[in-house]
Amino acid sequence: MSNPDSFIDEVTEEVRRDRLYATLRRWGWVAILLVILVVGGTAWQQVSNAREMQAAQARGDALLAALEVSDPAARAEALAAVEVDGPASAVAGLLTAAAQEEAGETAAAVATLEGVATNMNAQPIYRELAQLKALLLDEGLSPADRASALEPLAQPGAPFRLVALEAQALAQVAAGQTEDALATLSLLVEDAEVSGGLRDRASALIVALGGTPGSGAAGTNESPE
């Protein structure tokens, strides 16, 4: 390679370096900022996770401390005072309602349970349990209204179907709806998942109402004319 060519190559390389340095001086801060954001974001995520774990542990400790209060009314107040959000709030609500019921504060327990039942952040099984307990505790409901309100909870596939069926049958009996009660009790007796004790109670009630256990719709024992 001749000297002029070598000189041209050196000049070209120098120009390239100058352009690179100029680019770095102009845009290098962007790369540095990106590095800072990535590192800072990772650190913040770790700090945030640690704070959430500490907050969850603090809420759990507060709930456990409230449950140790012996007086039901004071326990209910202590449980209600614990600030719980998200899905865990349903569990706290159920515990609060149980303490209120034990303290004889039925209206307050129903209100708490209704709050859980309408909490869309709670898992469906907790909402249905709260709805069932609220219907059983609500002294303002007539037997007929209670039987009607229990209908959705007594459908096949519902998690508390068997309990709801028994409660519905008792409400129908109290409302004087004997035929409806016999039909409900028949569903209960014939359910494959019913426990022995619950089947025995349902069968005894069928007999008391004049029906025959295991006869489909629990038909009455009346003789044909």
From TrEMBL:
<feature type="transmembrane region" description="Helical">
    <location>
        <begin position="27"/>
        <end position="44"/>
    </location>
</feature>
<protein>
    <recommendedName>
        <fullName>Tetratricopeptide repeat-like domain-containing protein</fullName>
    </recommendedName>
</protein>
<keyword id="KW-0812">Transmembrane</keyword>
<keyword id="KW-0472">Membrane</keyword>
<keyword id="KW-1133">Transmembrane helix</keyword>
